[in-house]
Design a protein that fits this description.
about 30% helix; about 130 residues; 4-stranded antiparallel beta sheet; 3 helices
Length: about 130
């Protein structure tokens, strides 16, 4: 007499999904395809559900365990450092130019001139002539 298969994930006997869970006595509605687990909306026929999995049809690793392990994503930036430095330098140059223009224009807005007015001249002295 053949040994009953232990509970675990095996190739789906219906062929609809990649794997189906065998609980040790029958097939359950738990299925897995492409590493995603779910529940089969269509229950298996009773006779098929009681047929044990074929020897050697075990899943290489438990699909449920694969789904629970978080995937690590490594994010790298390429060339961002040089562009950022150039952008910061250009921003600083623009600010310096703006400040210089504002300082130069602030003197023109006062309405007064910094040049001195010419000194006034006195009226020519009057001369008298004696007749004669």
């Amino acid at each position: 007499m053949a040994q009953p298969q232990p509970a675990g994930w095996y190739r789906d006997p219906t062929g609809t999904y990649t794997y189906r869970y065998w609980d040790g006595t029958g097939w359950t509605g738990q299925i897995s395809t492409g590493g995603t687990t779910g529940t089969d909306p269509n229950p298996m026929e009773a006779a098929a559900a009681a047929t044990p999995p074929a020897p050697g049809s075990e899943a290489p690793s438990a699909p449920a365990a694969q789904q629970q392990q978080p995937q690590q994503i490594q994010v790298t930036q390429k060339g961002g450092g040089f562009g950022t430095v150039i952008g910061v330098i250009l921003a600083i140059v623009a600010i310096v130019i703006l400040v210089a223009v504002l300082i130069n224009n602030s003197g023109d807005d006062s309405g007064t001139s910094t040049t001195e007015a010419p000194a006034t001249t006195e009226a020519p002295a009057t001369t008298t002539t004696s007749g004669g």
